[in-house]
Amino acid sequence: MTSSTTQNQSQNQITFADFQFPDALKQALEAMGYEIPTPVQAKAIPLVLEGKDILATAQTGTGKTAAFALPLLKKMLSGSKQPALIVAPTRELAEQIGGVLKQLTQFTPQIKATVIIGGTAYHHQIRSLRANPMFVVGTPGRLLDQIRGGHLNLSNFGTLVIDEADRLLDMGFEPQMNELVANLPKQRQSLLFSATLPEEIVRLANSYLREPVRVAVGAVSKPVERIRQSVIQVATKDKDLTMLREINKVEGSIIIFMKTKYKTERLAKYLAGAGLNVARIHGDRSQRQRSGAISDFREGRVRILVATDIAARGLDIPHIQHVINYDLPMCPEDYIHRIGRTARAGAEGHSLSFVTPEEQQKWARIHKLIHGHFPEENLKGARAPNRAERRAPLAQKGRAQHGRPQQHGRSSREQDATRDQGRSNRGAQQFEKRRGVELSPRRAAELRAEQFLKDERRAARGGSLPQKPSGGKVVKSEGPQPVHKSAHESEHKQKPKSSRWKSIQRALTGR
Length: 511
Ligand code: AMP
Prior knowledge:
By secondary structure, this protein is α/β, with parallel strands linked by helices.
């Protein structure tokens, strides 16, 4: 393995003009607003043009897709007839790469790209493969299905690109990768991109690549530095209401990460019940639903995406401003991938993690990983758990505790919010008692959410908070106003307020 000759070259010395792209490609770059190459592009493009194999480690959101797509396109536009195979670990990432290729080829319609992923109709894919696309992007399982079915022949492919290779291995795709590679010609160019470089990736690189040039951009496992990170110490039972409060405090798009598919469904429904416009994505949803959710979120039709770790890697949606970890991830590295969904392409971003008493050890491990890798001022809100927290779970007393109340005291807004939460809880209980009905936990949660948001809005308007719970009489809430509202396509369509309140009243009265 040789070391990159361009490693120490300043990125500022290289411009897109240096690569002498054909006019149609220059036009596409202009239309996409790409003015200067990102560091990974500055390093990788000349190497790919030279025909070298590369092993690249790059931070998330660094412009990896164009780093391999631009030089391959230049070669194709200069007469190369050999198509490229691009393998990605998730359907979402494959679709995203397909989207970038579509933009890059907007002025060169003769160069076609197709996306071959599971969960979508075979016959469309077969038709698109018959058109001899120059780029075939896909996930390993469906690519192999199409090869076995005789619809995809890789024998004349000149390039293999493996994106997010570490994730492919994590997901157990190595046997499928080996089978795919066995179908490719031995004489080919191979480009491997990975966020991290564990031993298994080096082993994979040794078997798939020939004398690869190592390209490294930034430290491995280090996300962009602009992300301001913070944590909230919270009891499990208070997570939902705390989530509503946090959502209500901020503006802009939010992605919320959950541990399980079930919890993803539950939280999405809960937030939708509180009148928020939410999409959700997890492995039990059909590909149509998953793509619909991502596109609603990407296009700004919904402001909030609730997701399992399926969305933790590769997803590039520049407008995501907040990442909230409702549950901490199982392994500390996934924390880095998750928060890397924000602060994309130079933007600012914020991450917030809920930490329960039971998750203190997990948080300590994450803190150890991130400490020293970020500017201290961006970690102000993300302190390590203290000894007491690590040893004995906090006595929660039914309310969330922000930051370090013992030391700094809480802001009056935080105190108000906690008081509201207590009121909202009491309100729901009072309703229950007076009506003599047993509320389902979901209905009670919805009711608390509505009440909470109502009080928050009233407080924001400068009105005084109710001194007593407003039990007994259901007062119609104004409901929150989603920032991006979809008239038709959001997954959890916002019910008309009257019907929402009717259903809550029905739940209360049992009628
Ligand atoms: P990627 O790492 O390929 O997912 O790209 C991350 C983001 O950077 C995407 O939103 C790209 O559109 C954007 N991007 C990539 N290259 C450039 C560039 N040279 N100038 C500006 N934005 C870019």
